[in-house]
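Work Package 3 committed the consortium to producing structural models of liganded targets before the mid-term review. Because experimental data for this complex are still outstanding, the team generated a predictive model from sequence and the ligand definition alone, so that downstream docking and mutagenesis planning could proceed in parallel. The input record is reproduced below exactly as it was submitted to the modelling pipeline, together with the SMILES string for nicotinamide-adenine-dinucleotide.
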Amino acid sequence: ITTDDKVTRLLRYRSAVRRMKAMGLSRVYSDNIADATGVSALQVRKDFCEEGVRGVRRGGYLVDSVLARLEEVLGKDTTCVFVLVGVGSLGTALLKYDAFAHYGIKIVAAFDVDPAKLDARAPIPVLPVKDLTNYCRTHHIRYAIITVPEGAAIEVYEALVAGGVKGILNFAPVRLRSAGGVIVNNVNLVYEIEQLVYFVKHARSK
Amino acid sequence: ITTDDKVTRLLRYRSAVRRMKAMGLSRVYSDNIADATGVSALQVRKDFCEEGVRGVRRGGYLVDSVLARLEEVLGKDTTCVFVLVGVGSLGTALLKYDAFAHYGIKIVAAFDVDPAKLDARAPIPVLPVKDLTNYCRTHHIRYAIITVPEGAAIEVYEALVAGGVKGILNFAPVRLRSAGGVIVNNVNLVYEIEQLVYFVKHARSK
Ligand SMILES: NC(=O)c1ccc[n+]([C@@H]2O[C@H](COP(=O)([O-])OP(=O)(O)OC[C@H]3O[C@@H](n4cnc5c(N)ncnc54)[C@H](O)[C@@H]3O)[C@@H](O)[C@H]2O)c1
Ligand SMILES: NC(=O)c1ccc[n+]([C@@H]2O[C@H](COP(=O)([O-])OP(=O)(O)OC[C@H]3O[C@@H](n4cnc5c(N)ncnc54)[C@H](O)[C@@H]3O)[C@@H](O)[C@H]2O)c1
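The resulting structure, written out as tokens with the ligand in place, is given here.
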């Protein structure tokens, strides 16, 4: 059985090896993967050995065989369909980010409460938030991204859960809890900055 | 001596109690802090006890005394001055985010390679990236945010390090390494989504 920490590492290896493949590499070494993911080369070799990723005699691993084995272990990578709620400055940046498609991440619809933002005929339609629950239910949406202001996050979360959504990426600085089969990943950019600042200030004293 | 993990928790407690104070609360309980930060109430009480945050007789903690003690432990919160490099869709969203100011985070200048984006008279001036190293050196900039495309991230990183910057928040999907007294925090939104998707897919089997 794969532990959560190992899964996180395997996902990073897959992401790194895919990028290497996109650069034209056909063979990779544990040192390359270590540099790209921040995991030690020893840990990479150990994980690969445990998960049945075989190396080649002359050293290193074949890109295609690493990816094939990781697909078996992590599950076939199907396209994941997301909705996004809150088409403000952060939501708009995420809607424009076409690199998501390389990773099988597809945003199919967005929702907002501001009538000026609504546009049902846009490539990614922007629909009224009052239709959110129904839309998720009829389209069997499993994933959502929340980029609404702090004060609206909980009501949007509840509307998504009512629509059957199972995985939520939340950017509002309010912690939404994973409960009842719904998993929430809270990304708090302020925490990221506060942590950076603390460790810079205290790095000198180490 | 405070470990890294405990520091991360204390930063979260401070952030949560500040938000509670902004809501008008004068007293908080370990359960509130546990809900807001995702740490167990027991761990909150243990950390507070170890760091000398005193509770009150009738239960809970006074907001002002928690914040005063955490300021002593974590260091006085001075305003942190940042530059941002790469004024594209993500960079623009971060420049517009006025909540950073509540946490003492101030972006004073931005840089880009595209002449159409330059505007030295904007509230946050957008300057040519060729001036980045000099600007950081003459203004004693210690922190930077990188929101340039993947291919430009390493050269921007090197220009920042040459300018004396000590802490970098990197959004480009390339891992920049902390080295030589410079600390880099890599935020990879694709990893966040991949991890969410994996745990939703595998949640059912638990
Ligand atoms: N912009 C950033 O760089 C940044 C950084 C960190 C965190 N965040 C967080 O991300 C969230 C979005 O930030 P932003 O800067 O894009 O804000 P914004 O104000 O630009 O956009 C918010 C959008 O949400 C919409 N909205 C409000 N209530 C809604 C509701 N009930 N249902 C649907 N839509 C609703 C608004 O109409 C608006 O379009 C906020 O919670 C913010 O704290 C933003
Ligand atoms: N937009 C998103 O939602 C999102 C999500 C995850 C990660 N990212 C990452 O964040 C970064 C920025 O993404 P974006 O969507 O804002 O891209 P973008 O193309 O909209 O913006 C990039 C900006 O960087 C500038 N630039 C390019 N080379 C530069 C250099 N050498 N020096 C200074 N400026 C330079 C460009 O002129 C442009 O203004 C990318 O690395 C991207 O992979 C973006």
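Reviewers should note the following from the model. The radius of gyration of chain A is 20 Å. These observations will guide the Year 2 experiments.
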